[in-house]
Amino acid sequence: MACPGRRYIPLKKRILIIDDEVILASSLREGLKDLGYEVETAFSGEEGLDRVVIFQPHLVFLDLRLPATGGIQVLKEIKNIDKNIEVVMMTAYADTKTAVSAIKLGAYDYLNKPFELDQIAIMANKVLENISLRNQTFLLNEDKKRNITPIIGEHPSMLEVLRQVKILARHTDTTVLIRGETGTGKGRLALDLHYLSARRDRPFVEINCGAIPENLLESELFGFEKNAFTGAQQAKKGLLELADGGTVFLDEIGELSSDMQVKLLKFLDEKRFKRIGGLREIEVDVRVITATNSDLETAIKQRTFREDLYYRLNVVPIYLPPLRERGNDIITLAQFFFRDFSKKMGKDILDLSEEVKEVFLRYRWPGNIRELRNVAERITILYNIERVEIQHLPLEIREGFPKAEESVPLGEVHLEPGLSLETLLEEIERKYIAKALEKAGNNITRAAEMLGMSRYALQRRLEKYNMHNG
Q1: Which long-range contacts (CB under 8 A, 24 or more apart) does 332-339 make?
Q2: Are residues 455 and 182 in contact, defined by beta-carbon separation less than 8 angstroms?
Q3: Residue 223 and residue 211: Cα distance in Å, rounded?
Q4: 144-157: per-residue pLDDT in tens?
């Protein structure tokens, strides 16, 4: 149930009427417009197919008997253009058998002529509600694929984060930028912002900008028309369109290419976009939440991230602290994970020894909550125990590598004339990438995990530094 006072402006539904009876088609157009739909008409099959490409309707009312190109052929062509467009056939009683055949070819339903406007209105509402339900079911199934960890914590820094989330949940249009290291729970926080808001009964769509190549990211985000590029045999709605009324979460926003930054900025300013290969602008009502573990301010200075986009995204920033700075939250989270995995696997891990707790508090947790979760899962799988002891921990954690109070040794610092901090940082980054690749046996996926970044992000840095992986 929607919250009282929620503000949701739905994507205006588009209906196309294809009928060679001009008076009937025009009358239906005006009647459906009065009900709030965006409606266009076509008076032949050929004209109707042209309008399908340009107008991109959600629903088509199609006359079965059309001159030249008949209704059945037009139906086949519509489904070939975009299989998601719903088609309702309009037919005389004598054509009922043919109309039933049309349903087997993909038509949603049929209406017998003559009919009242109320019948058309009821059918339109039924079909369009079914489309919305289908979209939400698809996104719900995508949500189920994710492992969701609740936000747990009593550390003052986390209590402040939760305070900000409760406030921002009431402001459903405000753009939020979540910052924090890899594995700190940025996606979980974005999900909370969505489900605590008035948009909770609409879709939540997550897109990892660092895990998808640029050409695929654009098509995933904005969708594409049939024949927009090689292999585009069907039109496809983008995730922005599917998320209408809900929330779009763009993770690893710092990894966006320059071209995609421009397109995202335009969308944020106008809340409308065109599918790839499309002519029509599509307007949607979505809240945009972004997240990054990158230093966007440095990226702006290096001209790899647009300053205007930064200010457009950074309306309200939220900083998630690393796990190593959250004190006893580490133990609370560990106990939660062990209980959760024990329940799923039929085990009985009930407690952590004091020595284990001390090690957990001293360990640096470079992978943050994600690493802690993985450690708990590994131990639960490997041991039939009631209490986690020091010998059950992975070697790197038992040895305390690296410990929270330790820092990376830099040697003696020399501030010489002409020093370039930017060049120095790039050199350090090169060394860490080279070391990770060496330890991973040149396996990019494993090296990326060691460095706390996506495979795609690491590949971009290899290209930037001309470091050929081999």
Answers
A1: 332/152, 332/153, 332/154, 333/152, 333/153, 333/369, 333/372, 334/360, 334/372, 334/376, 336/150, 336/152, 337/372, 337/373, 337/376, 337/377, 338/376, 338/379, 338/380, 338/388
A2: no
A3: 18
A4: 444 555 688 889 99
Tokens of 353: 């020894």
Closest CA to 357 of 371, 374, 372: 372
Q: What is the pLDDT of residues 14-68, one digit of tens each?
A: 999 999 999 999 999 999 998 889 899 999 999 999 888 888 899 999 998 898 8
Comparison of pLDDT for 394 and 414, the residue scoring more: 394
CATH number assigned to the domain covering 14-137: 3.40.50.2300
Spatial distance between the Cα atoms of 29 and 55, rounded to a whole number of angstroms? 14
**Could you tell me which residues come within 8 angstroms of residue 403 by beta carbon, excluding any fewer than 6 positions away?**
362, 363, 364
DSSP 319-341: EPPPGGGSTTHHHHHHHHHHHHH
Residue with tokens 């996506």: 454
Alpha carbon 44 to chain centroid distance? Answer: 40
Domain ranges of the chain: 14-137, 156-319, 323-398, 421-464
CATH class of domain segment(s) 421-464 = mainly alpha
CATH 1.10.8.60 fits 323-398, yes or no: yes
- Give the end-to-end CA distance of the chain in Å, rounded to a whole number: 55
Q: Considering only CA atoms, which of 143, 274, 267, 121 is closest in space to residue 202?
A: 143
Q: Alpha helices of 115-173 — where are they, by DSSP H?
A: 117-144, 156-168
Is the domain 156-319 a CATH 3.40.50.1100 member? Answer: no
Alpha helices in 254-351 (DSSP H): 258-270, 296-301, 307-313, 329-345
Would the CATH topology of 14-137 be identical to that of 421-464?
Answer: no
pLDDT band at 134 (very low <50, low <70, confident <90, very high): low
